[in-house]
Amino acid sequence: MGPLSYYQLYELNHAALSPMRAAADMFGQMLKNPLNPMSQTPFGRNWQAGLELFERTTRRYAKPAFDLPSTLVGGMRVPVTEHVVWQKPFCDLIHFERQLERPRRDPKLLIVAPMSGHYATLLRGTVEAMMPRHDVYITDWIDARMVPLSDGRFDLDDYIDYLVEMLHFLGDDVHVIAVCQPAVPVLAAVALMEAAGDRFAPRSMTLMGGPIDTRINPTAVNEMAQGKSLDWFAENVVMQVPFPHPGCLRDVYPGFLQLSGFMSMNLDRHVTAHQDLFKHLVAGDGDSATKHRDFYDEYLAVMDLTAEFYLQTVDTVFITHALPKGEMTHRGVPVDLTAVRNVALLTVEGENDDISGVGQTEAAQHLCINIPDDMRAHYMQPKVGHYGVFNGSRFRAEIAPRISDFVLTHDVARPSGKPVPVESAQAKAAQANTAPVKAVATKPTPAKAVTAKPIAAGKPVAARPKARAAKPVEVAATEAPADDLKRIAGIGPKLEASLNAAGITRLAQIARLTVKQATALDTRLALKGRVARDKWIEQAKGLLQELLAEAGSTSQGSATASVK
């Protein structure tokens, strides 16, 4: 590779071509001017077409806008406003707020866009199709080269943490759609939330063209990933962001390399499309030229991914197949798909998908064995490829209505779990800050890989034996006055309120947490390892000993005074 990385060479090449690109744009505008006598000549039109083609093939495409100013609700056109309602260094959560004259109780829909090169605006058609009947939110992932190194790392575990935090932010009446790559982290997040008894788990999840089990009908993308080691990817595609970008020195998988991979799969089609653009410009076919510009303005806009997220995803999804084998973990906690019982599941595939092969998404139906049969369905759309699963005329006419109906069907609140009752003796002990903590947890069952079987399009999968309903993890609460949990270093007023809402009001409850309960609590409240990192359990035990010592000295003093 030499002293300069491909990323640095790419930046130098882009900078070197900037003057020529500016000149091409300037002369192109001169030739378009109707007052220019050459503008209507064959020579002028050929020259103009060539200049535009040069400018478009050498520019860096910025992130497009969603540009969805209105939608149709109940037969009436209403304005739509975009709002960023939740924000983290690597992601914004955008709400498409419909300006309705009369409030509607439409289901909340969280669309999780892929973090695999293209921006979330690639799902513009998905958002547009779902807005008439749903209150839509979408994840807007941030280009890694724009995130300063000081904002820390971002890997697959962080991705799952982000999803859990978003679901907590949106409330307990949300439905999730995962398009392509996020099918795996969304399914993992739901499994973790279900195992923890988290009431904010979504009511339904729709997985579209996602690589749940890439061993089924492997595509060229899957075979390429399977044929290389993780070290190969780290050595050949991971590079540092060059100066002067805000993310300078961050290790990333560059967007221009991803784009090269996308285009190489259908290179002849892209070359032909640009040849056709030249012909349309010469012929003055403005409509066809505009369609080409709209498509490639979106398709050629790409973002960098953090190296740790990319490598962990490649290893987990494409090399080790950890999720379907039951071996995937999140911060050391096993992802148990058999824990998913209360979240309805819809899987959608395209017949001609050359990125996620037929059966790879449907595999989720066979792995989530404890979802009742009336809460699951699979649909395969004929005659569409990967992008046709979430965009285009067939998506609008056949796929989107099915998703919408599935969401509306399962937009019902799940029964909330009840805390384990505390016996009177334990309640008394709790008042002395020595109460043992009880929790009800589902016994984990390792997920086994199951070969996907064909399921009729649009119909539920075959009946399976119904498993006993799993009770959510609930820490027993007491009727005694709440302790001041802020005495534990690392717990502030806001976090104390969250713990109280989760049923934890006593120091004794924290002191008696098992490893499994502490992990479940960490996942439920998105604490990112605070319980272990700040040693809450050890701190709680120390504080209890201090309280007991104070109580003992007080009792002794009282007894001495009475004797005197």
UniProtKB/TrEMBL annotation:
Gene3D superfamilies on file: 5' to 3' exonuclease, C-terminal subdomain
Pfam hit, one: PHB_depo_C
Domain PHB de-polymerase C-terminal: 209-409
Membrane spanning stretches: none
Lineage: superkingdom: Bacteria
Matching PROSITE patterns: ISPD
Protein name: Polyhydroxyalkanoate depolymerase
Source organism phylogeny: Bacteria, Pseudomonadati, Pseudomonadota, Alphaproteobacteria, Hyphomicrobiales
This protein's encoding gene: phaZ
